[in-house]
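Page 47, continued from p. 46.
Same chain as before, 388 aa.
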Amino acid sequence: ALRDTALALAGFIAVCAVVWLASGLWWRRMGYQLGAEELSLRRGLLSVQLRTARYDRTQAVDVVEPVIARLFRLAAVRVETAGGQSSVIEIAYLKKSDAEALRDDILARVHGAPTSQTEAPAEESAEEPAEEPALVPEIPIARSLIAAALRTSTLFLVGFLILVVVTRLPLSAALPILVGALPNAWNVLDSSWRYTARTDGEVLNITYGLADRRRQSIRLDRIHAVQITQPFLWRPLGWYEVRVSVAGYGASASGKASGSTRILPVGTLAQARQFLPADAAPTYASPARAKWVSPLDYRQQTVALTGGYVIVRNGRLNRRVKAIHTSHIQELTYRRGPISQALGLATVGLDLVQGPVRMDARNLTLADATALLTQLRSRQLPELKPPR
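Result:
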């Protein structure tokens, strides 16, 4: 028995040694390089992979601190480029100070500013620019907890747990609902935990995270659409949420989003209005007969045109205001279903870049829908840059 135990222990130690050696060799083969025009990342032991990201195609540069890495004061640098499903290059793991320095260096190269490897003129290096005041100061922890608790999904989860305890529902029946509801409640809390937002030139820097701490940078010129939402249960407290659609935001190879599109998890009306590019009185509104297809919020369905922006309002329980510049609209869709045809209504759909913001001018009269469609079809589109 002692011999078998000794052999098993020796085998386990040998396997761990092999894994440790292979892991060490694999990590030693990983490296990155900042070139004149692009960032390069090499990885792999048997199969070598080389990935590059051009600075002029970079959408965001984030510093991510997963919960395990935070214990060892390590962080990863994630570079988001304009691409598809695998548009993220992750440099992991570095010392936190090195990761912050690398992020600043990459952002400087993206914006063409002097880097740590480029000498700046003496006049420019003599004075450091003053730090911009925070758009959103650090959100209090109590507000994050209350906001997460007042979410409909959270209340549904609590009610379901009470039902499970009272009725003694089998765990096998309750597990699928718990698995589906828990991540949503956790995401709201995690994205607002110690959240701050400030601008640095043409970049929006946000910091947040309870388990995985993240410092995320979003280029302002890549934000296409903005949506301000006030959930029904937040109305007495006067809280709002702001989400954006960012051009080029893809997903990592694991399928997880590489950056948050919630740039204000929970804040005041004044804080939310800072992210609204324009506002105006309604230009078009749904008529009274729209109540037959949208009985709850037909009075809240309006469209405003001002300063080159389209602003759409809807929602009675959860109020929403969405805004986009007309040059960022990808396509237009004119829709009339069977009931809408009978009521003389039409909907103009605005096709945007992939993201959380979706915009439709719903249930307008035929004359208003046609007028809106005509104005948007004559919008000025951005000039296409020749390929490099």
